[in-house]
Design brief:
By secondary structure, this protein is an alpha+beta fold. The chain has three helices and eight strands.
Length: 141
């Protein structure tokens, strides 16, 4: 009995490894995705919402759209890792010259200051292909 259960589990995990749709099932809601549809000139780029038996729900400009699994040629997802935003501020203070410039004999020397700020915006990682439609010949094997 235990051997039969182990064989069933091994077969199920082997099927999951061969199933190209398995990575799509692992997507989290809100993941940025790009869908290349059959015959479409431009890919759809939006946020993954949910997966149904025969379709995938994507949010495009705050509107849900269903895309049939049979219409998807390729699906790319952007990993949720991004470089953080950073800001650096530098302050430079110059000491005053005790001797006033030639021709100026008035006023006390005043220290000078300069400020500079450098902001680095975070960058998004590139899309990674997680699903590609198999050719009919590959599906029959």
């Amino acid at each position: 009995m235990l051997r039969r259960v182990l064989l069933i589990l091994a077969a199920a995990s082997a099927f999951a490894a061969e199933d190209p749709w398995a990575k799509v099932k692992d997507l989290k809601s809100g993941t940025e995705i790009r869908i290349v549809k059959k015959g479409a000139a431009q890919p759809l780029v939006g946020k993954f919402d949910e997966l149904r038996d025969e379709s995938l729900i994507i949010v495009l400009k705050n509107e849900q759209t269903a895309v049939r699994r049979d219409d998807i040629e390729r699906l790319d997802a952007r990993p949720n890792k991004s470089t953080p935003r950073s800001t650096e501020t530098k302050v430079k203070t110059d000491s005053p010259d005790a001797k006033p410039p030639a021709g100026m004999g008035h006023g006390a020397p005043v220290p000078g200051s300069s400020y500079s700020t450098n902001t680095t915006l975070g960058t998004k990682p590139e899309f990674e292909t997680i699903y590609r439609r198999q050719s009919p010949a590959a599906r029959k094997q």
